[in-house]
Amino acid sequence: MASYELSSTLARFLDKHLCFPLLEFLQDKGVYNEEDIMRAKIALLQNTNMVDFAMDIHKELYQTDEVPATMMERRTEVVNRLRSLQKAVDPIIGCLSNSNVIRNFRHDRAFNLQFLKEEFDIGPEQIEALYQFAKFQFDCGNYSMASELLQAYKPLCTTSERNMSVQWGKLAADTLTQNYEAATEALLRLRESLDNQSFATPLMQLQQRTWLMHWSLHVFWNTENGKNALIDLFLQPAYMSAITINAQHLLRYLAAAVVVNRKRRNVLRELIKVIQQESYEYSDPITQFLECLFVHYDFDGAQQKLIECESVIEHDYFLTAIKSEFLESARLFIFETYCRIHQCINIDMLSERLNMDKEAAEKWIANLILSARLNAKIDSKAGTVVMGMQSSSMQESLAEKAKQLSVRTFTLANAVVGAPATKA
Amino acid sequence: MASRFWTAGSDSDEEEVDASEEENSSSEEESSSSSSSSSSGSDSSSDSDSDSDSDSDSDSDDSDAPKKGAARFLAGSDSDSDSDEDRRVVLKSAKDKRFSELTDTCDEIRNKMKINDWSAIQGLFDELNKRLERARKVSEAVGTPRVYVRMCVELEDFLNDTLANKDLKKKMSSTNAKALNTMRQRLKKHNTSDEFAEAVTKFRENPQEDEEEEEEEEESSSSSSESDTDGEREETEKRPAGAAKKKDKLLTMDSAEITYEMVAKKLREIVTSRGRKGTDKQEQVEMLQFLANVAKGVPQKLEVLLQLVGSLFDLSPGISNYMKVGLWKRCMLVMLEIMDTLQANEAIVLDDSAEPSEERTAEPVAGEDGKVRVWGNLVAFVERLDDEMFKSLQVIDPHTHEYMARLRDEPVFLALSQKVHDYLARIGDVRNQPKVALRLIEHFYYKTDAVYDAMRKLTMLQQEEAAASAAAHPEGAVAAASAAAETAAAANTSNEPGEEQTADDKVALPVPLDFSMDESSTAAMKRLVGIVFTHGDERAKARAMLCTIYHKALHGDFHSARDMLLMSHLQDNVMLMDISTQILYNRSMAQLGLAAFRLGLISEAHSCLQELYGSGHIKELLAQGMAMGKFQDKTPEQELLEKRRQMPFHMHISMELLESSCLISAMLLEVPAMASSPLSVKKRVISKSFHRILDTYNRQTFTGPPETVRDHIMAATRALMRGDWSGAYGAVSALTVWQLVPQRESVLDMLKKQLKEEALRTYLFSYSAQYRSLSLDQLCTMFEMDEKAVYSIVSKMMIAEDLHGSWDQPTRTIVMHSIEATKVQSLAGQFADKATLMVELNERAYAFRTGGLRDDDDMGGGGGGRRGGRRGQDGQWEDDGGHGGRGRGRGPRLGAARMGLGQGGQDFGGHRRGGGGGGRGDRGGFRASGFSSNMTSGLPDRFQRRGPYRQQANPNMQALGSISRPGGGVGGGPGGGSYNRPLGGDRRDRGL
């Protein structure tokens, strides 16, 4: 089971803070030894400023009230730093909290800086301190504050390098405050700036795209239209090649999103191709399911994989919410494909395939027929479903071709003759 | 013979001269009459010997050479001792300059004489005359300077020699010959004129006096230029003569008496004379060998040994011939000795940037860093040795024992390279280290595990033997080895070439005991390739990469080999590389194809091999033999070059195996395709060469039982077209090449499976129209496949609408519902297809004209989609063909092979692992660390820093990334537009 558990892989591409929900989830599920997870948590927190939290976990883990000296030291250090930063940013925060000031900001960053300098005597040091403070707050787990601070800092940052950092920080902070709307927006912006980045080396771009995709998992799986956005993002050629090069395991999420999202059947072919191509690098029950179904047409195998999928999804932080949805869609997938190549199916067999009893299966099929998603008839005497035939005759296809030809010729002729006419 | 002289020479010089003269005269009697007078008159002199010697040089045949050399030594010894001891420095500064000018010009003329450059001599002679005029003015002396007269005499003699030598004259270029004639006339006039005639005759009568005076003059010229002019002057004669004399002295001396200075001087002498005409290379080697034994101090010994290696290389003729095996072995021995010395004395550093053998009289002291620097370039020697071995393997007939014996020398070479490599690593020479590593890689990459193990065993066996012999001779293995070398050396001096041969072969070449090969070739490759990737230059990296690809493919790791190939962008760059790298690329490609074939990845195998095989020049592409084309007219130079590129036999990839793999792949792809669309307009040809062969085969009126690979596969094709898989399998499995495949069983099984599947598909394509329904069970028994497989294949065909039918689940049958088209209908269909094609062309033409503006506005999406869709189906082939074709047009034919490793209809650009090679490296780096330990270190603290991630990347892979060209600009950009781009553009478009 644990072999399909992706947390460790994902963690490499996530921010420390973004990993934390994953660890919590794992702790709940009890896949790993609880102590190990606690230790991992402490290790995770060690480099953040959430010292108290780390101490709590430590106490819980070792069942003591004593806390190692290093943690205490770290604590004082953090507190000191907090104080000094606080002092440094007080003027600028005071100034920025005045809405009149914000209103006077323009798109021109240099102007903003100038403006602050002249009006409030706020120099680059304070602005830098603001950024540091935001980072510090983020590290303390004070995400909403960090988000606000970053928002305030944004019109003031001058280098594009720093701008990227701010965007990443904003995305993380919004994600962690579960403000997914803002996060989606931040994601979109970040993606834009990634694509427009001209100074980054290909290697850096690759790395950042990979990060973006991982971070976006948090957002996409928690928003309404997220699956669509996920499919859109992941199937972008640049991101797709990032997946094939750097993070094949993301195929799982892409596959799940495609399965769940009925409207996006059209991308299935592309997805299958990638899955097949990467199968030697990465495969898990979800991709195997698709492979069984659409490459080998092995329905029994697909059935088997679907059962495996269930437990995999259950233990996946991102997917666990869509479990039933996924299973339902997957079942429909199997059935649809099955119907496409059969003209007559035994309902008994079908119910077995679909993991339903006969009655339910019949009802299910009847519903499908009713909703006009299946061109078939139930032969209840023989206990079979008979598919409607829709093979086109030769004449029809010829007529179709001819029609198409005439349309195209017409456009072409129009283009040739019409061109001077429009000019004149 | 030579040794006799050594001892004799030391006793009395005078006697020796006589003896030598006697011997010499025997050869000189045949020489031209003009010089005989001078040789007879040279009782007490030596330098007039220049005449006689140049005679004997050209006249005496080769077998006389050693004899003559020895004689020459002794003759010369006399004068040299004179000049050494009797010299007084007389300064005559006024005339100095003029005279030195004169002597310089003379020297230059002598140089030109050596290379027979008469046109240059002519010019220089004019100059000489001018200078003479000036010299006369300055010195106001009467008569002519002796230097000048001597030059005239020498020139005359040389001219006569040259004229007498018909062969030489024939070989001369026309300008040179013309200059020769002019010189002849001019010299005749010149030397017989009143002014000089007297001087010349006088000189001829008494060259000795002349010599001495000249000696003085030269001494006086300037003390700093002394060594130069001295060396130059002595170039033809005196150097070896001097050497002989010194040697005499040295050889007889007690080794304790020999000082550092003496050895150093001697060494310098040899170094300066190296490469000159008339130096006896054999003698030099002897001398150096001796010097090595008496050298004072380790650094000096190293100097001598290094020089010895160089001199040994000099013994082998030209670049077109290979070094004799015995000589090679001697070189190896010396090299091993050097390495042992270096190993034992860590303070000594060999450095080719150090001052080469400057004037030193005492042992060099350690530098400030406690290191003694000695000039030398081990890497060059190793590379030369490798090249020589390669060359010898090219030439030796691979079916003889000689070839096997030669191959047995490989472990020693590997040991040496490894030692040099380790040494370079120790001194931190990262510039040269990759060079040696690459050499080693190129010895490893083509070895299968079996071969590698055999090599390893051989190494150990040889080491054991060496250890045993070392035990027998208490003085140790190295001493034994050098003793062996000495015997060989002694044998070498004898005249009979046959004897030399046997002696050479007897040289035992023990593998050093401290050498051990890596457990597996993979480990060895990994280690070495890492070094090349971190420090090597572009070419080395590319080669190492290709070797790794080859090696991985050889070991069946097709996927990672393919990924490496695609990531490194070698396909794009290989056209720009040197031919040998292109050959290596082709070899890797062939091996990759074979690997894919073994794994049953038929279409991949086909696309790898197709280009190579389809070109019809596969032998040339792989450098495994010369094409015997009728229509080729190669110049001899081209042929020679090509010959030099050939791979030795043991590195060959079996042609037959390649051919059968390629043709079988083509068959498996082509037969169902042909069956599916017998009448289709857009018939796409997967493999042209396959079609060609099939056509000729079909045209035959009578087909006998299959003999060649082609026959077998054509027979199989016929069977397969009928859906008769067992017949096809019978024909294919009868091929003998399968014995060459290590995993014979599995490959045959794979083939059987593939044949069954394709036979089923072909059968369904061809005969489905004849059925109304087909039972699954029947199909299973017909093709001996299990239900699931048949079901899967048939379903796939249904989905793809290749088969118009559907399953009837309760009865387990396929029900066909294809309506058979009437003749008119199918013709109409074809007509419609053609019309569509025409419209498409029109559209394209229009788009081309107008830049596609309006077209795109109106229906760009549709058109793009269509085009894109088509590419989706057969993009791979179009893509492939286009690029291959361009490749052929562009560069030399070698290296034309390209491949499209797409899967199914995958279009290339999309899945090539563009630009981010390094990204993979990152992944590798990350992967290495485990879960819990990695939690903190590996977490991207994106917020603050971004640098560290790149540092974490595996250095090898990062270097790998830097080989790769950044994958096409910055980012693919927001998609959409890419459809309308030409195919080539599309490939490059999707970087990251």
TrEMBL record, chain A:
Residues 219-392 form the PCI domain. Signal peptide: none annotated. InterPro entries: eIF3e, eIF3e_N, PCI_dom, WH-like_DNA-bd_sf, WH_DNA-bd_sf. Keywords: Cytoplasm, Initiation factor, Protein biosynthesis. One of its GO terms (cellular component) is eukaryotic 48S preinitiation complex. GO terms for biological process: formation of cytoplasmic translation initiation complex. The keyword Cytoplasm applies. It holds the Pfam family eIF3_N. It is found in: Cytoplasm. GO terms for molecular function: translation initiation factor activity. Its main location: cytoplasm. Component of the eukaryotic translation initiation factor 3 (eIF-3) complex. HAMAP family: eIF3e. Component of the eukaryotic translation initiation factor 3 (eIF-3) complex, which is involved in protein synthesis of a specialized repertoire of mRNAs and, together with other initiation factors, stimulates binding of mRNA and methionyl-tRNAi to the 40S ribosome. The eIF-3 complex specifically targets and initiates translation of a subset of mRNAs involved in cell proliferation. Belongs to the eIF-3 subunit E family. This is Eukaryotic translation initiation factor 3 subunit E. It comes from Tetradesmus obliquus (Green alga). The lineage of its organism: Eukaryota, Viridiplantae, Chlorophyta, core chlorophytes, Chlorophyceae.
Automatic annotation (TrEMBL), chain B:
Residues 966-978 have a biased composition (Gly residues). Component of the eukaryotic translation initiation factor 3 (eIF-3) complex, which is involved in protein synthesis of a specialized repertoire of mRNAs and, together with other initiation factors, stimulates binding of mRNA and methionyl-tRNAi to the 40S ribosome. The eIF-3 complex specifically targets and initiates translation of a subset of mRNAs involved in cell proliferation. Residues 649-821 form the PCI domain. Signal peptide: none annotated. Residues 32-45 have a biased composition (Low complexity). Belongs to the eIF-3 subunit C family. Residues 1-87, 203-248, 852-992 are annotated as: Disordered. InterPro entries: EIF3C, EIF3C_N_dom, EIF3CL_C, PCI_dom, WH_DNA-bd_sf. This is Eukaryotic translation initiation factor 3 subunit C. Keywords: Cytoplasm, Initiation factor, Protein biosynthesis. Component of the eukaryotic translation initiation factor 3 (eIF-3) complex. PROSITE patterns: PCI. It is found in: Cytoplasm. Pfam families: eIF-3c_N (PF05470), EIF3CL_C (PF26569), PCI (PF01399). Residues 11-31, 46-63, 208-220 have a biased composition (Acidic residues). Its main location: cytoplasm. HAMAP family: eIF3c (MF_03002).
